[in-house]
Design a protein that fits this description.
Elements lengths: L15 E3 L3 E4 L5 E5 L2 E4 L24 H8 L6 E4 L11 E5 L8 E3 L11 E6 L9 H11 E12 L16 H7 L4 E6 L6 H15 L6 H14 L12 H4 L5 E7 L11 H9 L1 H6 L12 H12 L1 H9 L12 H7 L21 H49 L1
Parallel strand pairs: 4-7, 5-6, 5-8, 6-7, 8-9
Antiparallel strand pairs: 1-2, 2-3, 3-4, 9-11, 10-11
Helix pairs in contact: 4-5, 5-12, 9-10
């Protein structure tokens, strides 16, 4: 089984027949192009313009956060979908990189509102900085639900306190409660603020956008005001994130995230039944992993099974030996998987990303800051001088008027 085996028509969900350069729906007869080996399955049948490598700010691996832990926990036959992955260079055999744009790194061009995949295909679907760009996030969440296996996981983050930025459009920002509503059909495992969504990023983005868009002015006070805002931006903003609790950060975070699972009746089809049974039969495992289904932490049943469990139980070891890894294509190399397997398994905890700017300034930077500081002092002095000159002019104007009045009375 490969990528083409799990594809369907994005409109009617019918089976597709593959030709040399097209995919044709057997049910509705719609045709979709294959461009340089990449199926383009947008509902309207269009082909987006190609975005080349030099146009992209690429990602080379996955940050040590919830999505990475989930992928490190899943068995090799699990199929993973990243929505909005057009700039991800790391190519994993079991991860389908989907995007509405055509880049050198996508496996399929698809719209989150009309996912072209068979129901119950994926064990994990995630998106990073995508939800705010969706026209109908509730519809996209339903599409995600439909193509997940029972027990499958979803992770999505969305801007909260963030300025407008179009890729190509920016429709919604969401609070924690907003994301919970969009993913209401899922069982919530965790929501909150990720380290890359802290208030410093909100402040930086809003002030930077403000300064980039504010109009020019010849008013010295306006220019001083701009320099004051720039001075705030020059501070080590990320260092002050440590002063926020997660509850406080939720009120002014740049973004928030949602992590949940598709929890229908019956056993999870993502966690192998053998491992679920071990947990059900072993009180010690139940104490160690009180939530059998939470794979968003390093303390989960699947990481136990992949390591300690294999050593303790021969049938668990035999299970992993029998697993046939999913490969999206015959040409995908194992290089990406080797890189991914070398990544450390780190607990995704609420925290901060230190700002390296303060304490690491060069002499030139320090001199530049001193010059800027002196310029600000000079600007303050200039403002006082300007105000004083205006005041003197008003006084002089009044004096002249009084002298003219006196002369006028004398003439009479």
């Amino acid at each position: 089984m490969d990528l083409y085996d799990i594809l369907v028509c994005p409109v009617c969900k019918g089976d597709l027949t593959r030709g040399d350069k097209t995919l044709t729906c057997e049910a509705c007869d719609r045709a979709y192009p294959i461009v340089d080996g990449v199926p383009v399955l947008l509902p309207d049948g269009s082909v987006p313009s190609t975005e080349y490598q030099h146009q992209l700010l690429v990602r080379k691996d996955y940050d040590p956060w919830i999505p990475r832990v989930v992928m490190q926990s899943l068995p090799a036959d699990a199929i993973v979908l990243e929505i909005g992955a057009g700039n991800m260079t790391l190519d994993l055999p079991n991860v389908i990189r989907a995007d509405v744009t055509l880049t050198p790194y996508v496996d399929v061009v698809a719209d989150a509102h009309a996912l072209p995949f068979r129901p119950g295909t994926f064990s994990f679907i995630f998106s990073l900085a995508v939800i705010e760009h969706l026209r109908q996030p509730f519809l996209a969440a339903q599409e995600t639900f439909d193509v997940l296996r029972n027990g499958g996981y979803t992770y999505g983050d969305c801007n909260f306190v963030f300025a407008y930025h179009g890729y190509p459009h920016h429709y919604f920002n969401a609070s924690e409660q907003g994301l919970e509503q969009a993913f209401a059909q899922f069982e919530k495992l965790r929501t909150g603020v990720a380290p890359y969504q802290m208030p410093s990023f909100a402040l930086f983005m809003v002030l930077t956008t403000y300064l980039n868009n504010i109009g020019p002015s010849t008013d010295p006070e306006a220019e001083a005001y701009k320099r004051l805002l720039q001075k705030v931006l020059d501070q080590p903003l990320r260092n002050y994130d440590a002063l926020f609790t997660e509850e406080a950060a939720l009120t002014v975070a740049a973004g928030v995230f949602y992590f949940g699972r598709k929890a229908l009746a019956g056993k999870s089809s993502v966690i192998p039944q053998l491992i679920q049974e071990k947990w059900e039969q072993d009180p010690d495992l139940q104490r160690r992993f009180p939530n059998l289904f939470n794979l968003g932490t390093t303390h989960n049943i699947m990481l136990w099974a992949r390591h300690e469990g294999r050593q303790q139980y021969s049938d668990i070891d035999a299970y992993f030996q029998r697993v046939v890894p999913f490969r999206k294509s015959a040409t995908v190399s194992d290089e990406g998987q080797t890189i991914f397997d070398a990544l450390t398994v780190e607990e995704p905890v609420f925290g901060t990303i230190p700002d390296p700017r303060r304490g690491d300034l060069s002499r030139e930077q320090e001199h530049s800051e001193e010059v800027r500081h002196q310029a600000e002092l000079l600007d303050v002095k200039n403002k006082h001088i300007i105000r004083l000159e205006r005041h003197i002019k008003r006084i002089e104007s009044g004096r002249v008027m009084r002298l003219m009045n006196v002369l006028g009375r004398k003439r009479k």
